[in-house]
Amino acid sequence: MTTMRKQASERVVTERKPKIWTPGQIVLMIVILIFSLTCLLPFVNVAAVSFSSKSAILRGDVSFWPVEFNTTAYQAIFSDKSMIHSLVYTISITVAYTLFSMIMTILMAYPLTKGRLRGRKFFNFLALFTMYFSGGTIPIYLNIKELGLLDTPWSLILPGMLSTYNMIILKSFFSALPKELEEAAIIDGANDFQVLLRVYLPLSMASLATLTLFYAVGKWNSFQDALYYISNKAYQPLQLKLYHIIKGSQAVDVAALEGGASTVATSVSESIEPATIIFATLPILVVYPFVQRYFVAGVTIGAVKG
Amino acid sequence: MKKVLAILLTLALLLGMTSAVLAEDEWTTLRVETYDREIAGLDVTNCWQLKYAQEHFGDPNKIKLEFVSYARWTEGELLTTALAGGTAPDICVTYNGGLVQQCIDDEGIWQLDDLLNEYGANLKAFLGEELLTYGQKDHDGDGTPEQWYIPARRISRANVGNFIREDWLKALNMEKPTNIEEFTAYLRAAKEAKLAGDNTVPVSFGIYAPDPLYNVRRWTDAFVDFSQVTKEDWFAYARNPEMLPGSKEGFRWLNTLYHEGLIPETFALTDNDQANDTALIMGYNGFFSQQPDQPWRTDKNYEIEMEKNVEGAHWVTVNPFKNESLNKTLHDIYAPAGLSIIIPKTTDEKTAVAAMKYLDWMAIPENMFAMQNGIEGINYEGLTEDGIPYGVKSADDVPDENKMHAGDICFISNGLCYGDDEKNAAALALPFKGYEEDVKASYADSLTDAWTQISFPISIQAETDYGETVKSAQGKFLADVVSCDPEKFDEVYDAGLQDILNSGAQAMIDEFRAAYQAGNYRGVFPGDL
Amino acid sequence: MTTRTVRPRVKGTGWFARDWRLYVMLILPVAFYLIFCYKPMIGLVIAFQKYNMFKGMWGSKWVGLDNFKFVMSMPDFPVALRNTLWLNFLGLIAGFPVPIILAILLNELRCVPFKKVSQTLLYLPHFLSWIIIGGMVLQIFSPQTGIINATLLKWGWINKSIPFLTDGPHWQATYTFIGVWQSMGWGTILYLSAITGINMELFEAAKIDGANKLQQIWHVTLPGIRSTIVVLLILNVGQMMNISFDRPYVLGNPMVQNYCDVLSTFVYRAGITNSQFARATAIGLFQSVVGMILITGANLVTKKLGEEGIW
């Protein structure tokens, strides 16, 4: 029996039950395991540090398991009551951003794959040029200000909406689909919108999922834009707040100069950054499996036949 | 018809008069840049200090105060962008001297002489004439400097703290070293006796990448031969201690220490490496040199953690870097100026007056006390007989509506100020429960034979252009010179110096020299001490 | 390879009647580019001015190429330029094949749960900040006390610590290795999704023809993702003049100054910390122009070789 899901088209079944535990597969799994471990172990270390006491961390005792277990670092994060609000807010701007970005990317990539588009080279160049030439921090800031976007959530969504890099990748995925599909649809009377929606998009789920992931993760992890554009606390994304918390706990050395009472945050100065990483990564890891199912091989272009 | 006209005219007159009267009564909005450190529960735009200032200053003067939040850790970039974009607040503060210089050069901020003279009597009294000169520069070249910014007063100017293990000294039966020879003997003996087992590294030493020679110069200045250094040279080599005659021997000494295993092999990798912290806490080190309160700071808790791990371990202050030519152990101290307070030209005249009034209000002792310390019983337990608050509560123990930050709001004073130097020194030690005497001793030591760091009241183009590049070259120089083969030391040293000169230091030195000759310099020459 | 559609060729306004929908699709993206990218791009003129941030772009003095001349005459500049290109080149050689190989290997796995979990794990390094990675690198690669050196010394396999971080060429190798490790997850996802697009029937046909696993990979999988490989290669070549700031800044140290200083750290020193925006913009403009030349060149070369370029 097959374990593959049904996609838009059917998978032609020719194999019997695939054997998992052949020697070849085991070797393969060991190789992959080694790679995976190099990626996992540092993360485990980060998690362990986030749950360890400051003394233990400074002693250098923590490797892959918490020493002197405590949740103070996480408490420090959550003692800021606005953290949950910020989490929800960040999720909503990430979703909005990803949605808009994907729409823009698709709308740009699709026409550019058509050789009949007049001015194709011009549009290509228009996009490519922006990948290299940028005004710089101050001109961009002034632009955002002039557009009235300062201190609004839109300043975090609109400016970075279309990544030319991602668009070029999508373009190449679209181009890789057989032309016969489009021809078949056109014969059936479809126009460009319908070809895009009914033929290209369903068959590009893997690449769309990939780019959606890239956009979402990129937005989730970024805070440089919010740093400059947002001063209203309510509109600060999660990563920005976490960045401040980390800095706040580590810069006690200016206390004599700048004067201020200590906080619980300083008592977790060593574990707070690891805690923020775990806290900020978990949502992505929760979402990731849903995206993964699109990376399953087996999309056949069966509809072309006959 | 005439009646209607008359009524209309009277109405218009009345309207005009009321609006004139109302205009005089109009409130001014004053936007003040306020650092935000993301202290949980503290909203700087709506904190207790704002309410206090509004009640005691804003209301009587018809000024509406607004605190604008600026993230402390990126304040430089944020302020630069805001100034360029015209969105900066009415009073701006920054630690970034280069940015302030840029504002002066580009004429983007107001000159404050008139405002200060008319509305800033208390402020002038608090800051003092000498400190105010730090904010003055002769931009238009007419011979008289103008007041471009208000420098905040640094309460604590101590910079250098040298610490040695008291228990190690006892174990080796040695006295605290008072000069380089004794110091080296201590280090060698400690290493040989393996006082911390195989991991013994007598010195905790690392390169501070943003300014590599800043901490190192206290080591090498001990070797400088001041009989060969003129006052002019001293100021010319302001940022190049490696060029001072005699310092070469200091670097050679460091090279010796490195090859004897007295300095960590990894000294060049990074100053922030956790391995450095671990070594200090596990008691592997016998000496380190940083800021005067370093062992007791709560971010690393070097002293407390070390006591947990090593029986009887204890850091005490020491002064080993004696300069033989002067017979003094030099300590460099900060200039009296801390934060720079500027008023950008986007602020109109009326608001600028309000700004100066606000600063002046903060300088009055009662107001400063309230803004810096808060309310007895809530922010601190009580007052000592000297009138200094003790038992300052951690921010988590204070209810949200009373949370505050002393330095960010009352920014004309960098550090808590209680009137006189003695009280201030005592106040510095109070937060370090259990170690007040150690801290006091450390601060006292760091202010002996003190020379003020050098600064120049004019724009030094070469420093703006090459300052950072020279520092980077100095970092490389330090790494090379300390770790190279002792046979090749002279070669590497001379080549390194040449590199530094080529990377822009020569231009800087020339310009500094010219500034000195024109009388435009600030700082103290150790030869004068 | 672009083929014409089955419709007869039309001239004159006929093409618009046929293609107007495509132009409608382009409206939003083009508007985006114009408003958010091209409008602020005018700010590039700062590179040719003695920029006064209060007077703005239109009030500052013009100084022609002075900023460029100044920056390029600094002794650090050629070093930074050389290191940028070299480190990117190393990264390309070492890093380019790894995600492809990983994607192919993952694709061959039959145990689906193992495959899914591995994919997730490979992506994890992407989420670690460079500060954290820097700390770990020191813990692992330091001389004497680093995990690798300490273990090798203890077992007697080496007599002296391997200078992973303290010797120039070694440092560059370590830097490259860390870069590959951190980014391989990202590339793997991309290639995996490309592989899913390969027509399964090609595999069936190859099997019927008697191809073994390796031959299948060589003749079906690789050609199937060839366009993706080519596009990514061109894009990467085009990025050779750019380099991130965090990675070299965190991993670098004064001992390997001549090997680790790159354009991003150079700009930080010479243009950003001292608020010299005009100079920073000049360096950026230089990077942009060269980068554009590189990608155009790469595109031309690939087209000459018969592949489809990116434009």
Explain what this protein looks like in three dimensions.
The complex is a heterotrimer of chains A (about 300), B (about 525) and C (about 300). Chain A is mainly alpha-helical. Mean pLDDT of chain A is about 85; it is low at about 1-10 and about 300-305. The two termini of chain A are about 25 Å apart. Helix content of chain A is about 65%, strand content about 0%. In chain A, α3 crosses α16 (about 270-290) and α9 (about 180-185) packs across α10. The longest helix of chain A has about 30 residues, at about 80-110. By secondary structure, chain B is an alpha/beta fold. In chain B, β12 and β13 form a beta hairpin. Chain B is globular. The model of chain B has no long low-confidence stretch (mean pLDDT about 90). Chain C has about 300 residues and is an all-alpha fold. Helix content of chain C is about 70%, strand content about 0%. The longest helix of chain C is centred in the middle third of the chain and has 29 residues, at about 170-195. Chains A and C meet through α1, α4, α5, α6 and α8 of A and α1, α4, α5, α6 and α8 of C.
Write the layout of secondary structure elements.
The complex is a heterotrimer of chains A (306), B (529) and C (311).
Chain A: H1 23-50, H2 54-59, H3 72-78, H4 82-112, H5 120-132, H6 137-146, H7 154-157, H8 164-176, H9 179-187, H10 192-203, H11 205-221, H12 224-229, H13 238-250, H14 255-258, H15 264-267, H16 272-292
Helix pairs in contact in A: 1-16, 3-16, 4-8, 4-11, 9-10, 11-16, 13-16
Chain B: H1 2-24, E1 28-36, H2 48-61, E2 63-71, H3 75-85, E3 92-94, H4 97-105, H5 113-119, H6 121-127, H7 129-133, E4 136-137, E5 146-147, E6 150-154, E7 161-165, H8 166-172, H9 180-193, E8 195-198, E9 203-204, H10 212-220, H11 231-236, H12 247-259, H13 274-281, E10 287-290, H14 302-309, E11 315-317, E12 322-323, E13 328-329, E14 331-333, E15 337-342, H15 349-363, H16 365-373, E16 380-383, E17 389-392, H17 406-409, E18 413-414, H18 421-429, H19 436-446, E19 450-452, H20 461-483, H21 489-517
Parallel strand pairs in B: 1-2, 6-18, 9-10, 14-19
Antiparallel strand pairs in B: 3-15, 4-5, 6-15, 7-10, 7-11, 12-13, 16-17
Chain C: H1 14-41, E1 49-50, E2 61-62, H2 66-72, H3 76-95, H4 97-108, H5 112-123, H6 130-141, H7 147-155, H8 168-196, H9 200-208, H10 213-224, H11 226-238, H12 246-251, H13 257-260, H14 263-272, H15 277-304
Antiparallel strand pairs in C: 1-2
